[in-house]
Amino acid sequence: MAERVVLAYSGGLDTSVGIGWLKDATGKEVVALAIDVGQDGEDMDVIRQRALDCGAVESVVVDAKDEFANDYLVPAIKANALYQKRYPLVSALSRPLIAKYLASTAKELGANSVAHGCTGKGNDQVRFEAAVAALAPDLTSLAPVRDFALTRDKAILYAQEHNLPIEQSKKSPYSIDQNVWGRAVETGFLEDPWNAPIEDLYTYSKDPAEAREATEVTITFDQGVPVAINGQPVTPLQAVVQLNKLAGDQGVGRIDIVEDRLVGIKSREVYESPAGLTLIAAHEELENVTIERDVARYKRRVEAEWAELVYDGLWFSGLKRALDSFIDETQRFVTGEVRLSLHAGKATVTGRRSEVGLYDYNLATYDTGDTFDQSLAKGFIELWSLPSKISARRDLAN
C-alpha cells in the first residue's frame, strides 16, 4: 500500500487543491480529515464528498462540537483566558483538537505524515505541528502552501486545469476562521490598523449602536462550568450557542486588536465572540465572590501564562497540564449564579450570589448588626506599615 498523509481539510480552495498538490509533490495518498467545531457554513456531507472528488482516497468527518466545548472551551472559561487581556483564543483553542484527530487518524489508517493548509506567516502552523509533535512524535508534518509554494493564483490555476469542484468566485478581501466560540477576520483593508472595521465584517453580532431594549440573562455555574441559562439546564455547548444568540443580538463580543503573533510580527485582527466574552465576564465575577484573595491574585498571573501557552500552540505541554491542575483546584467552590445586562455591545454584571461564597453581609455592612471589630484595625495597620516606617527612618537619616 502506498504511503499516506492525513490532511486537515476545510473544504476551501487551498486544502482542496492541496489534495492533488500533496499527491503530486510527495507521491502519497491523501486522506482528508474535516472536524466540525461549530463553524457552520457548508454541510459536512458536502465537504466529505468534495474531498473525494478532489482526489482523496478517504474522507473522514468528525463531529467534535461537544468535545470542543467540554474539553477546550470549559478550561478556557475556568482560566478566564484572554490573550493580551482581550482575545478569547477563538482559533487557538480549536487547533489542538484538530491536531489530536490528525494524529489519531494517521495512526488508525497507517499514515506516516499529516498536513495542513497554513502559510508560513501565521500562528496556526506552529499550533498544528507542535501539537502533533507532542502527541505523535514519529509523524512528519507537511504544509503545501508554505513548503511547496502553493500560492493562491497557482491554486486557482490548478483547480481549473483539473476541473476540481470548487467555486472560483471573486476572492473575498478577508481571511476568516470561525467556530462555535467565535470568528476571526483579518487581511484586506484591515491590514492598515488605522482603518476602522465596517459592519460587513460581522455575522455573529448585530450593530451595538442599534436601539433596542437590554437583555437580562442569568448564568449558573457549578465548579466553574456553566450548567444553566436563565434557570434552564444546558450543556457547555448549549450555553455557548444560546449566549452567542442572546449576547450577539446586543452587539456583545466585538474585538479589534493589534496582536503579537508567535512568529514575531504584529497583526491587526478583528474578532467576534459574544458567548466567550459574556461567559468569561460572568465567571470572573463569580470567582470574585468565591475565591479567597491570595488565590485570586495568584490565579490572575496563571491565567495570563495559560492564555499565552495556548496561543503559542503548547496545549499539550507539561507546563500547561500543571497549570490546568492549579486552575481546577481553584474551581472547587466557583458555584453560583451571575446576572448580566446585555446591551449596546456590553455584558455588564448586575448581580451575583453563591451559597458557598465568601461574601459576608454582616462583615461588609456599615449598618447596625456589623460584626466587623473595627477596633482591631489600628493595631493591624501599625504592624502592616512597620517595615515601611523602619526603612523610611533609615532613608531620612542618610
TrEMBL record:
Classify the main location. cytoplasm
Where does the record say this protein resides? Cytoplasm
Residues annotated as domain Arginosuccinate synthase-like N-terminal: 4-165
Q: What reaction does this catalyse?
A: L-citrulline + L-aspartate + ATP = 2-(N(omega)-L-arginino)succinate + AMP + diphosphate + H(+)
Which residues participate in ATP binding? A8, Y9, S10, G11, G12, L13, D14, T15, S16, G117
Record keywords: Amino-acid biosynthesis, Arginine biosynthesis, ATP-binding, Cytoplasm, Ligase, Nucleotide-binding
Q: Which Gene3D superfamilies would you find in this protein's record?
A: Argininosuccinate synthetase, chain A, domain 2 (3.90.1260.10), HUPs (3.40.50.620), Single helix bin (1.20.5.470)
- Any one Gene Ontology cellular component term annotated for this protein: cytoplasm
Give the EC number(s) listed in the UniProt record: 6.3.4.5
Q: Which residues form the Arginosuccinate synthase C-terminal domain?
A: 174-390
Sites where the protein binds L-citrulline: Y87, N123, R127, S175, E259, Y271
Question: Which BP terms does GO give this entry?
Answer: argininosuccinate metabolic process; L-arginine biosynthetic process; urea cycle
Subunit details: Homotetramer.
Q: Which family does it belong to?
A: Belongs to the argininosuccinate synthase family. Type 1 subfamily.
Q: Output this protein's name.
A: Argininosuccinate synthase
